[in-house]
Amino acid sequence: MARNKHPEETRNLIIDTAARLFIEQGYEHTSIQDIINHLGGLSKGAIYHHFKSKEEIMTAVADKLYSNTEAEMYRICSRKDLNGREKLSQLFSASLSNPAQAEIFKTSIDMLDNPQLLIIYLRDTVQKDSTQMVHKVIEEGLVDGSICTDYPKQLAEVLMLLGDIWLNPMVYNCEPEEILEKIKFYQHLLRLLNLDIITDEMIRSIEEYANIYKDNR
Length: 217
Description:
Helix content is about 70%, strand content about 0%. By secondary structure, the chain is mainly α. Helix 5 packs antiparallel against helix 6 and helix 9 packs across helix 10. The model has no long low-confidence stretch (mean pLDDT about 90).
């Protein structure tokens, strides 16, 4: 039984089960009891031993889904054959090409209806490792001449806030057509900063994710 497993195995079982249910039923339509019912006898107390809330479970699900992306981002940052601007473009591409993005949008979370989850997401957008990676890459670009800015830290934070918040339909719930216009504006804005790092392929990916989210709402 799940209750007899090693604690880390139990935690992973909860995360994997919740991920499947969130994707199949949607985040709002999946309760803690639904998760318990699919854990083969694991008690509610055992779940709360590992997670304080459904929001914490969702955060753990996202962390696990995105773990491969983080590894790829570290690999990009360590490359010696790319300048800072090229690394920045590849970081954005790696984030968008991860299959986990589609899985997350299938959960059809409305962040505005889940304020606790929104708070966690907003905090992590600025504080998570990927923002630090972007900052480091911008600093590299300043040294090699491929990026020009007097505000590298602030630029890194704004890039992440616009990319992860303003362009995210789970936060700004709008039609795919509007998302498309926003990403084109984002591309235009970055070009004004001499950062031509958003490709047409990236735009198509974001549009696809917006459609996935709309279809699962």
